[in-house]
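User: Could you check the structure of this?
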Amino acid sequence: MKKANPLNLPESFFSQLREGAFLTAKAGESMNTMTIGWGMIGVVWQLPVFMVLVRDSRHTYSIMEKALDFTVTVPTGDMKDVLAFCGTRSGRDLDKLRACGLTIKPGMHTASPVLDVRGLHLECRILYKTPMDPSHLDPALAALYPERDYHTLYFGEILGCYEE
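Assistant: Sure, the predicted structure tokens are below.
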């Protein structure tokens, strides 16, 4: 394991995030992994933060609403097929980890586990969450929400950032 500074990540991290990364959350016995392509790293409340968006219609949303934390895995190997599968199937219907042959390991800082794949891992504690208010959305972005299934924004303090 190699620690990384979440505020000084290489461009390859952001390129892969645009292509797809994994968001994993656990609350009680419920856990799910989904593919994300949107996220943001920065400083909020004087803390390093990863902000992720989850549509309210997603199974992960029901877990995130009860979770205290989440993890993000940005893979470095070719995982396009797995990312596509986890982004198009619902954890309500099947165990995506088993279907893809993925395994997890305990987070070092979070109750939510980390995917056991090569990549950069962020372990985040949820600091704040807020549903989008579409009345504040730039009309040019309305096309991203044809079904009006808006996101909830989750701000997570980055407790751990490392490569494996």
